[in-house]
Amino acid sequence: MGDATNPNVALFQCSTKDNPFLPPDFYDSLLLQYGKGEGGMLRAMQELEGKFVCVEGAEWGPENFTDRVWCEEWPVDDQALKTVMLDSSKGIGGKTGDYSCFTKLMYSRGKLWVEFDMDNARNASGMTARAIEIQQEFKSDWFGVEAEFGGNVMVDDLTNRAEAAGILMPLVLVPTNGVQKEVRIRKLTPYLTQDMIRFKNTEQTKIGVTQMESFPHAQHDDAPDSLEGAVRILNESGAI
Length: 240
Fold this sequence. Notes:
Structural class: alpha/beta
Radius of gyration: 19 Å
Distance between the termini: 47 Å
Strand content: 15-25%
Number of strands: 7
Number of helices: 8
Order of helices and strands: HHEEEEHEHEHHEHH
Mean pLDDT: 86
Shape: globular
């Protein structure tokens, strides 16, 4: 594709499949890593097919998800506030293949640093076991669990497991207050548009961000739902 205003510039678009030096299964392997099936495979189309993608009607445009939002490591900050929020994906009307999503959130230097821990095969026991592992590693100040849809039962199980493991589990139940999920998720808008969020560059976080890029048209919305809960915990604590 040429540029009529600059005859010395040309744009070439090709697929990763066109590279004859890559292993035969390289493309399919990356396709899975980028979250096959999420948001119309937006990230796969961009990263593997070299296409600029933007979902018509998406809540947040691609300008909110440029390279600047990604980080390899979080800041070292002893004064940072940390929270975790679990979206168990087991609510009423949950879709097939929904993910259980833990959002790990750090508030430091005026920004929200985010990592998603996602799995669409974890049962309740697997979620509580992973919650204990995350708290041991992350040492959050608050650990949120959605109040509805069996949240009380999960909190009781987590409390017992934490006591057995000898760790502090600062559990809080996070209610929906009857507010529809899409309305809650849209409360993330000012943080995205004011460039306050940074995402850790991991494969699971990429899946979660792909859900956000396509919201409200993504196949799943577990990551933005979980992130909104984590941000709400910090807001209600007066931290931000």
